[in-house]
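Ticket #4471: structure output looks truncated?

Reporter: J.K.
Steps to reproduce: submitted the chain below (260 residues) through the standard prediction queue, then opened the result file.
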Amino acid sequence: MKKPYLHWTQEGSGPVVVLSHALGCELGMWDGVAAALKSRYTVLRYDHRGHGRSEAVPGAYSMAMLADDAAGFIAAQGGGPVHFVGLSMGGMTAQALAAEYPQLVKSITVANAAMYYDEAARAMWAARVQTVLAQGMEAIADGALQRWFTPEFRADEAGGGKQRVAVLRERLVGTDAAAYAASCKAVAGIDFRAGNGGIQCPALVIAGTRDEATPVAMSEAICKSIPGAQLQTLPAAHLSAVEQPAAFAALLERFFESQG
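Returned output as attached by the reporter:
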């Protein structure tokens, strides 16, 4: 099967860190974190298939495909095993990547993610797919922003939160609806309960204490499933790396440094 073109950027110098974004976002989601890391790390960011400026491949998507995309990107651009940091869909990609391509990762960070969805959750995902395909991305945009950010961040004009939310909304609405729907199906179908037990690399799990999309309990479950994983929390909703970029980057730096 043809590999999609993936848009990517590179900043900084030092050990390589790859940042993998959330569903309905693109690599710009990581601007604050990348700015904090690039003085000490080579920061690579990429757009998932069907997101941002990457190719919107037609047909069904699976999490295995997203892990394959990440593996191909790392092999081509990373120059060896990397610290792989994923949030939400990116965090799911991280789990699949570490299980299937252990030689490509020095460590993984799994932020605001899940490892399995039950039937009720899968029904919710199916309803979202139907809405997007019937009514377009605008129909789900406001609901997504309410899950992504706390009310304070969405209203914060002085600190730039309100402007940041507006930019991310525009990018979400601009996402290809068919690719978004295919990505939703890939996310809904995840089940890492068995594979996570075989992950050998160091793992950091980050949860948002106000994340209603992937509550802390989901991160706790991921942490328990990966041998030796550690859990940290941030006072944020789902897109913790956008709402708390400096704190998120500080957690990453401490985690990377602890590996020697």
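Triage note (M.O.): checked the attachment and the full token line is present. DSSP finds eleven helices and seven strands in the chain.
Status: closed, working as intended.
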